[in-house]
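Workshop exercise sheet. Pairs work together: one partner reads the sequence aloud, the other fills in the structure field after running the prediction. Swap roles for the next sheet.
Pair: D.N. / O.F.
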Amino acid sequence: MKPLPIGISFFDTIIEENYFYVDKTLLIRDILDKQAAVNLFTRPRRFGKTLNMRMLQCFFEDTGETTGKDTAALFRGLKIMLAGVQYTSHIAQYPVIFLTFKDARRQSFEAAYSVLKDSIIDEFGRHSYVLQDERLSTKKVQYERIMQGHGERSDYDKALKFLSECLFIHHGKKAIVLLDEYDVPLESSWSNGYYTEMADFIRSLLGAALKDNLFLRFAAITGCLRISKESIFTGLNNLDVNSITGKNYTEYFGFTQEEINNMLAYYSLNSCAGMVKEWYDGYLFGNTEVYNPWSSIKIVKDLCADIHSLPQPYWANTSSNSIVRTLIDKADDDAKADLDTLIAGGTIKKIIHEDITYDEIEKNIDNIWNFLFFTGYLKKIGEYADTENNIVLELTIPNIELLCIFRNKIQEWFKETIEQCDLSRLYTAVLDGDAQTFEDELSELLIDSISFYDNQENFYHGFLTGILSKAKRYLVKSNRESGNGRSDIFMKNVSAKGKAVVFELKVAQNMQELSAKCDAALQQIENKKYIKELEQEGYQHILKYGIAFCRKDCMVKIADSIIKE
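Structure field:
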């Protein structure tokens, strides 16, 4: 069987080394048909943007003076070759400028600019064959100055336009410009405090290359976000934006259901289709539902190695997921309630607009919801215009993989929050048998938390375990076999001369059930003999708590006889 192309984004490598390839070559047809001068494709990370850009380069580029490859051979048997001569006649017909900004994540403008500058230098070097053309003699000094890294800032601001002119003089054909991950340096500059400087450079570079450039055949640009036209694409009237809300090119980024079915069938994994769908499907681009391609390939590879492999949140490991963390850090009570709703499987409604800039992310919480939607963390399931003609989307979490990311980030945030809290009053109340103070302190922490509710004890169990685990000189264990059953949580002093505490948790459907649930929890401790193990270890002072939760509320009761003499 063909190997799976994990982390391989070079189209020619995938074809030449016979990797499994999901055919997206009809993207070429659609670009030629629509004839936009500048195409901007915004999709979440790891959705095949770079691979598609490399595919465009392989198709269009005249490689005679660079690699000398027969590029037509790369497309043999693929869909574009059956689309008609009006498309195949464009194979290897144009000079191509290809830049990727994916490596420009740096902590300072100088470091990021150096990476971008090196990308430009490399591309000038790749096309240095043009220097042999006598028609370029008047431009040779400037070309070599840029290629050798000795140019001024103004040289690199206009480098792409200058290179396209040189290529036109040599080839007699206008150049195609392909720019991958254009917004990576913008995102990094926002995170590290140099957004204005980076935006100025990107604006100058793209403005010169894409606006009124007589030597441009067309351009294709990819990124995660549509950045405000006024911010980066000033005066660029020929920009065709294709975001996840658009209706064009929807099937070319991510895997469709048919493509997933074919891949699973090829690897004899049809029985895993339901699990793959629950975990990695659910993204909606235009009216097309697609799977996360990165995670889909990863799970198929793992299943090929072991059919019993468990699904994992593979996408979570491809970046910091900092936008989710930003939302959590900035969340007010309304935003926390929205997160509660989403993680419980519900939907929220938010006004969505595409023309935003990175430096606007933290100006209000609504901007963060926008970023979560456009970067793939949320999915649209409904849409309408409000009374002020704003576009309002009904949003939900797309799949189990994204749900894991949200939950893990929230748990990480809560752990850090607990580490900063003074919990001494709560610990004292627990050990003194002061159920009322324990309840009051626990209620305050619940109100401040972001939680999720599925009528299970899982959240509350982790919530309380995290709180208790910070108590000094006490060991906290959860779900450990004890007596005739499994107690929810117990904590014990490192010395058997100290105190031990058993906690049993229940979830109530409404406030009226809290008291009865506490009583049931205490009765369960007795019936299941949860203190037996602690007694066998020599503990004489054992407290028993029954705790009932109902969303942001709780009740705590302690057994009448709390200390064994």
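Discussion prompt: The two ends are 70 Å apart (CA to CA). What would you look at next?
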